[in-house]
Amino acid sequence: MNLKWNSKMLTAFYEIKKIDENFKKIFDEFGLPENRATERNFKSIAKIIIGQQISTNVAKKIYEKLAKNNMLSEEVLSKSSVEDLKNFGLSSQKSFYIKNLAILSLNKKLNISSLSELSSEEVTSVLLPIKGIGQWTINNFKIFALQDVNAWPSADLALQEAVKILLNLIKRPNQIEMEDLGQKWEPYRGAAALFLWHFYNKIKMKSTKL
Q: Distance between alpha carbon 101 and the CA centroid of its chain, in Å?
């Protein structure tokens, strides 16, 4: 399925530029954030769990290896052992988390596709009790799958680094400081996060070419 940013997110991109001149500067130099919308399904949450606390490149390789071996269906994962999953580069914990998520989805104890019908707070209350799913995972799912224009993954290191560079800070802001900084970007913090990731990726690409 070829997904795109929806009209709410596209509107939020233009609204955040009015709130903070910094986002206009990002837009003028790099354009709108690239389309990274994902489906509202099991694979999307599993992919975010795989990406917890590891580099994007490593996470991508693990996910692609699982996909290539047809390991990303709830049926297959629910029957796989933790040891089976570790062979694909997953830690014991992440293997358990993804297997557990697959079982919950398969047994209809978690309806991922219906999360779009809930409020942001309700989505958090449904997902947070599940092992391996914290605020970072939830906010990433909200942004990329639910296209929540105000979700704010304040614990994300790349986001923190982007803010440091953009605002010329001496050190990278911590999660509490990010929460404070994000207040001025409400109700479009999700759009702000996408602009910041976009900015950070472009800056990194520039630096590797030097």
A: 17
**Residue positions counted in the chain:** 210
Inter-CA distances, 154 with 60, 172, 176, 177, Å: 22, 12, 8, 9
Residue 53 has pLDDT above 70, yes or no: yes
Rounded to two decimals, what is the model's pTM?
A: 0.93
d(Cα 149, Cα 192) in Å, to the nearest integer? 8
- Among candidate residues 32, 47, 42, 35, the one with its CA nearest the CA of residue 3: 35
In our burial notation (b when 16+ CB lie closer than 10 A, e otherwise), range 141-171 reads: bbbbbbbbbbbbbbebeebbbbbeebeeeee
Q: What does the pLDDT read at residue 89?
A: 96
Task: Please tell me the distance from the alpha carbon of residue 60 to that of residue 180, in angstroms, as a whole number.
Answer: 31
